[in-house]
Design brief:
alpha+beta, 4 helices, 4-stranded antiparallel β-sheet, single chain, 11 strands, rod-shaped
Length: about 190
């Protein structure tokens, strides 16, 4: 006869395996908590997003795979007990109706999705920042280096490149030097007058 604690167990002890559980709309977090309270590690892949509404910036989670929670059971899941959760209504199954076991390599890539997405967002922000900085300086206008080896030197903007770079001309030891700089290293000073 099983004990009371065994009646609440969600799996028969054995080899750890991953399963994709189907979750009710926007209840992934509750499903994760419900599973964690019963000794099952679970996650759903999300990335943090920022939005600005009426001047107020807020952060929120964007789900990569809405409606899915990935759970690692410490053995064979007891399906009817897992599906007794108010947040779960099924699992990905094989053609014979058994719950499909997920391979660890695919799950590792799901874990990595967030890291890749954050890296891509940081790159996009950096490109946008460079483009904004490059737009602040205009061809034919005077600028000043605010970073790099020529900090404090005045220069003339000659060209703005498509990747946010800026070609500038400035006097160095009584000779004109033409160099390419990053737009974020320059600050525009207006029309040429030096």
């Amino acid at each position: 006869m099983e004990s009371v604690s065994d009646d609440r167990a969600l799996f028969h002890p054995g080899a750890k395996r991953w399963y994709a559980l189907l979750c009710r709309p926007q209840q992934e977090v509750q499903a994760e908590r419900w599973l964690a309270a019963r000794g099952v590690y679970a996650f759903h892949p999300v990335t943090r997003r920022k939005s600005k509404v009426r001047g107020v910036e807020r952060e929120y989670d964007r789900r990569y795979l809405p409606g899915y929670v990935f759970a690692r059971f410490g053995g064979d899941p007891i399906c009817h007990r897992v599906l007794a959760a108010p947040f779960l209504h099924g699992a990905l199954t094989l053609t014979n109706g058994e719950w499909g076991v997920l391979g660890p390599k695919r799950l590792a890539s799901l874990h990595e999705m967030r890291v890749r997405d954050e890296r891509r967002e940081a790159d996009q922000e950096e490109r946008a920042r460079r483009a904004l900085q490059a737009r602040r300086v205009r061809v034919g206008a005077e600028a000043m280096f605010r970073a790099g080896p020529f900090v404090g030197h005045h220069c003339e903007v000659v060209e703005i490149t498509s990747k946010g770079g800026v070609k500038v001309r400035f006097r160095l030891f009584s000779h004109d030097a033409l160099v390419e700089a990053r737009g974020c290293d320059l600050v525009g000073l207006g029309q040429k007058g030096y």
